[in-house]
């Protein structure tokens, strides 16, 4: 039982990690807590569902299309709605993203109703047996793809001009502007990348969880906790904290019951913040140095 629980948590951690990376990056670069991130995950799941049900495209195959669509959504929302608001106050960005979350959820309720939907593939119920442990092919593929996306984003941030511009803008916006970088344009790309990663998480989630307009609500709390635990803006921290959070949930559900998994996870989150406010994998906040 211990081995199966450990494997289940480990495989789920990859999905949590990729769901968190975009949220963490937007928070770290722009200082925005994007409450619409859960809605982006939900949209990615529905886009994968539509491509699978109407065109017969496997969610793992359609993921690049879903990511491209969500990139356009995130880029446009940032350019038209959030960039003007960012010049005023952080509270207005919270209100704007919260309103956007409500709008998108209600829109998908109107389009698809609140009925539960799912993506069924020929391999959905198949698993690899390793001794007494069963490893779901879907969960294994989702975890591997999550790690691949995280590694790709890390390379983009560290090896490309766009990535260097994003990091420079996050470190000092005014200095970046003096070097010929336009922060508003960088914010657009950052928001687009964050939304694209949320769309990827939605595609992966469509193969693992029931799909409904409220799907994002089940992720946003976990995403917030994982971001803080992993260190705001840290790609590697988000992935590592995603695995830790998923393992905690998995063991709590197995040994205490499903009703206790959130209580244990959030309780440990609060305890860790008391001992280490910057999170398990984060660096000290600038204000503490």
Automatic annotation (TrEMBL):
Subcellular compartments: Cell membrane
Q: Does the keyword field hold Transmembrane? A: yes
Q: Which domain of life is it from?
A: Bacteria
Q: What is the name listed in the Swiss-Prot or TrEMBL entry for this protein? A: High-affinity branched-chain amino acid transport system permease protein LivH
Q: What is its main location?
A: membrane
* Classification via PANTHER family: AMINO ACID ABC TRANSPORTER PERMEASE PROTEIN, BRANCHED-CHAIN AMINO ACID TRANSPORT SYSTEM PERMEASE PROTEIN LIVH
Q: How does it sit in the membrane?
A: Multi-pass membrane protein
Keyword Transcription regulation carried by entry: no
Where does the sequence pass through the membrane?
6-27, 63-82, 89-114, 134-157, 186-209, 221-248, 255-275
Keyword field: Amino-acid transport, Cell membrane, Membrane, Transmembrane, Transmembrane helix, Transport
Q: Which organism is it from?
A: Methylobacterium isbiliense
